[in-house]
Write a structure and sequence with these properties.
Strand content: under 5%
EC number: 3.2.2.-
Number of strands: 4
GO molecular function: hydrolase activity
Shape: globular
Structural class: mainly alpha
Distance between the termini: 25 Å
Organism: Cylindrotheca closterium
Catalytic activity: queuosine 5'-phosphate + H2O = queuine + D-ribose 5-phosphate
Strand order of the largest sheet: 1-4
Keywords: Hydrolase
Helix content: 40-55%
Order of helices and strands: HHEHHHHHHHHEEHHEHHH
Largest sheet: 2 strands, antiparallel
Low-confidence stretches: none
Mean pLDDT: 93
Length: 361
């Protein structure tokens, strides 16, 4: 990597805030933020927290692998969990149902199906636990860097399909490429260890985001500048990995408050439900009719940038109303919005979400 590359990835979370704010100030942005409607959602969140001190949990639905029942060393348990989460977040994108070109059936694949399928694979070799304090996982572990780097679309599909059953994972070629990239990156820079990657950040969340960007190109959720707009940063999957691993391993990373919301499709959907995001008429029609939005189009960038800025405003609103208590962060607010949005979407209470075919969310 060049010096310019390192400069591009430095202070990444600040770049997300700055570039998204700049986008929202542009003429022609197709989404507006109705800040006057933040109070109702803030009230709901504050009430939820008051009623339940553990108001938001990372693994509330128990979808994720935590290493429970693993009989090896604690170091290796953490290594296995870290590899599981890195694997999951490397392919954590585009879960909206797609039509199967062959059968014309709708594929109801959701995030939880992938998370649980990978969890089953992670648990498959727990009985072969090795009690040594080696910094790497067992070679039999599905998500060892060596195994990830050797994946092919056929082998990934054959490994996952028994756990997905009638569901199927779309864009298997790209997902295979991203997983192989993770395996190779860990071997090249971190002695084949996800924990060495984490430890290299020196307990700093923003530095860990930076390391992810430097070593795994597939996480670089950055839209290059064009004639009509400058470079814009989102970094959804890089930041969500940091949020996930911090919670899963109780890392207590500093600067977690510097992370932004994870700009995907569910969070803007619920922000629109609460009349916080307002789409221009042409965009309303596209989204409500279920039509796809071109990747990196002005409409897509407007939705994502507005989501980041709106959650920043919401976090500020919440912290102004709860002084003296543990501060809210964009990460915890994102988890709340995503979990509530998932339930409301499944119950048919939300308008459609926007659809973009992308590897970034």
């Amino acid at each position: 990597m060049t010096t310019k590359d390192y400069e591009t990835f430095s202070d990444p979370c600040t770049k997300v805030r700055l570039t998204c704010s700049q986008w929202m100030e542009k003429e022609g942005c197709s989404v507006t933020i109705q800040t006057q409607n933040l109070s109702r959602l803030a009230h709901d969140i504050l009430l939820r927290k008051k009623e339940n001190p553990t108001w938001i949990q990372w693994d509330e639905e128990k979808w994720h692998y935590t290493g429970a029942g693993y009989n090896g060393s604690e170091r290796r348990r953490k290594e296995r969990v870290a590899l599981y989460i890195l694997t999951l977040d490397a392919i954590n994108f585009c879960f909206w149902p797609n039509k199967n070109a062959a059968s014309k059936d709708i594929n109801p694949l959701e995030y939880e199906h992938l998370a649980m399928s990978l969890k089953h694979l992670a648990e498959a070799d727990q009985e072969s636990a090795d009690s040594t304090e080696s910094h790497t996982c067992e070679s039999s572990y599905a998500f060892s860097p060596e195994n990830l780097s050797k994946l092919t679309p056929e082998s990934l599909n054959a490994t996952l399909q028994p756990h997905l059953k009638e569901l199927y994972l779309d864009n298997i070629e790209k997902r295979t490429q991203l997983l192989a990239e993770v395996g190779e990156g860990l071997k090249k820079s971190f002695n084949g260890s996800a924990m060495e990657l984490i430890e290299a950040a020196n307990k700093d969340a923003c530095v860990l985001v930076e390391l992810i960007l430097q070593n795994f190109p597939g996480f670089r959720d950055i839209v290059p500048s064009r004639e009509d707009f400058p470079t814009i940063f989102f970094l959804k999957r890089a930041q969500i990995f940091v949020g996930d691993i911090n919670a899963a391993l109780n890392l207590n990373l500093k600067n977690m408050d510097k992370l932004t919301t994870f700009a995907d499709y569910r969070v803007p959907q619920i922000l629109r439900h609460f009349d916080i995001l307002k789409y221009q008429p042409h965009l309303e029609t596209i989204v409500d009719e279920g039509s796809e939005i071109p990747v990196r189009s002005k409409d897509e960038l407007s939705i994502r940038a507005a989501t980041v800025v709106a959650v920043e405003n919401l976090v500020e609103h919440l912290n102004d109303r709860s002084k003296g208590e543990e501060p809210f962060t964009a990460v915890t607010v994102d988890w709340y919005l995503w979990q509530v949005g998932e339930k409301m979407h499944q119950d048919g209470l939300l308008k459609p979400f926007h659809k973009v075919r992308t590897q970034f969310y």
